Amino acid sequence: MPGPIDYSKINIIPDPDTVEWWEGTKRHKFLVRQCKNCGHKWFPPFPACAKCTSMDLSWFETAGKGVIHSYVVVTQPILAAFVPAVPYVVGLIELDDCHEPDGSLTRVAGVMIDDEDAVAIGLPAEVVFEPTGDPNFVMPRWKICGTAQNTWKFNE
Amino acid sequence: MGALTDKYCIVGVGETAFMKASGRTPLSMACEAVKRAMDDAGLGARDIDAITSFQIADSTDVANVAQALGIRMNYGSVAYSGGSTTEALVAHAIGLIEGGYCNTVAIFRAMNGRTGRRMGGQAPGGVVPPSRAEGDAQFYMPWGFTTPAQHFAPSAMRYLHDFGATTKSFAEVATAFRYHASLNPKALMRAPITIEDHQRSRWVAKPFRLLDCCLETDVASAFIVTSRERAYDLRQPPVFIMGGSARTYADNPAWNHSRQRTYIQAGHFARQRVWGMSGIGPQDIDVLSIYDAFTYTVIIQLEAYGFCGIGEAAEFVKGGRLRIDHDLPTNLSGGHLSEGYAHGVALVNEVVRQLRHRADDACPGWAEGRHSYDRAAGCRQVREARFGACLGWGTETRGSSLILRSLSA
Ligand SMILES: [Zn+2]
Fold this sequence. Notes:
The complex is a heterodimer.
Chain A: E1 10-12, H1 19-26, E2 30-35, E3 41-42, E4 57-62, E5 65-74, E6 88-95, E7 107-111, E8 124-131, E9 138-144
Antiparallel strand pairs in A: 2-3, 2-4, 5-6, 5-8, 6-7, 8-9
Chain B: E1 8-15, H1 26-41, E2 50-55, H2 62-69, E3 75-80, H3 85-98, E4 104-112, E5 131-133, H4 148-163, H5 168-181, H6 195-200, E6 203-206, E7 208-209, E8 218-227, H7 228-231, E9 239-249, H8 267-278, E10 287-290, H9 295-304, H10 313-316, H11 335-338, H12 345-356, E11 387-393, E12 398-405
Parallel strand pairs in B: 2-3, 2-4, 10-11
Antiparallel strand pairs in B: 1-8, 1-9, 4-8, 6-7, 9-12, 11-12
């Protein structure tokens, strides 16, 4: 497993567009934005619908499950919070319940619980909610939750 | 052809040294770069009546440069904007002059990219103190996902996956540009490297190694745009602006990661406009510069502008194709990877010098256009440089381009 992340060294500043998203994580919900007019879903929570321009929006509670579309293995820490964590994998997770008939999709990023050796493109992953030490913030992370055919791993 | 094709020219280029620790202000460096570009063109302070620049809260205002150099501006502005702004400011300059707002525009970028504000938030000397995750950073900073290397890596990883490519293709880019830097006295990193050197260099953010990353640099660079009529009387052979694109965006421009194919770069959406406006195509290009924030950014821009098909560049760059005396000489200065990171302006300067036939190399007569073409003796002038292109990267979802020709083309 990657080392611990020192969340005390990141100062998260929610704003009126995002405060409800952060509130959701405290209740262990992974939310995405949803348009009340046309049903489109997206992340991060931009304040208008890219399909119909409506600003009449709600939140959709995803099941927090998806497939690893790609990833990066960070070996050189830049932020102080991540010095104890390296090497760690940031996964890009394509959410299962945000696929739309026209092909649009939603991918979210997050730090994998798993080591690099376990991560591969194509594997299923699910969200886990990690305490940060600050009662005002709970952090979504991702962990591999099954197997798949046709997975691919960077092995250079 | 575009309505303004060949009506405007780049007439002067200049820069400071490429430095690891300048000990100077961005203002001082900007003044030197603009002054050098003016001297190169044979223009005085009264001949310049507009200055534009771009920055991300890490540089100086154009008013300070105008004050210092005694320039009275009919137009001056600073874009808060990153890579690929260089070529967009050329488009601004053309529109401003065409509209009669001003006559001659100096464009600069000045920054202490290594000892001042570093890309991705790293502080001089190492990691940063507690950082504020606000605005869009709320959705990447808490995931340790902040630097350009970290942001572009997933697109690169997926590219390798989709096309069965390896990072040896990245190494081809790094080694070609370093070879060119060995012929450029201005370059920061001039010692040649091999494919194996690249493959052995340490990981930064997989699939990127140290030798995939550009050089954080303290530098200012500048060039001057004016009308064809004024350009003919100046000191240097004018280089004509045929066309280009000014910060074209892809879909999902602020969150590339939800695009269907994250490695299809913004240039893909501009290519018909760019080549249509210019009246030439990628097959006509003799000298190319590509914004090489990373080796991989070269790969996907080659594809975006049609130098090869999507997914083909990893093969395309093999066998030294991007090297001088080969098919498509690219980043002849060494580029951001080996000359130094100047946010795109220095890449334009190199193409201008090549199209003038005045690459500032080891040839004693370079300033008069006399070159030996002897690479072992340090000549980096391309033999026949008639058409040039500069491709600007500002992430996968934003990009600019500039198509240039020589006086004789
Ligand atoms: Zn909608």
